[in-house]
Amino acid sequence: MSGIVEPISAIITIILINVVVPILPYLLSFAAGAMLFVVVEELVPEMHGGKKSHLGVIGFTVGFAIMMILDIALG
Prior knowledge:
This protein has 75 residues and is mainly α. Helices cover 85% and strands 0% of the residues.
């Protein structure tokens, strides 16, 4: 039952294709922001819990920085 939303949304998107395509970058940015929120809200606090808490935070920070550098460099 939880998957019933996907075909319904696909049909609505097909019907409204002329409206959805121009705002697609904004919708994808919202989805990316939601994923980052989940990472920061759920995973980062758990990285602080163990003995090597700084290693997890540093790894996350370095990975994020590399991702942003590649995004800017490769456009």
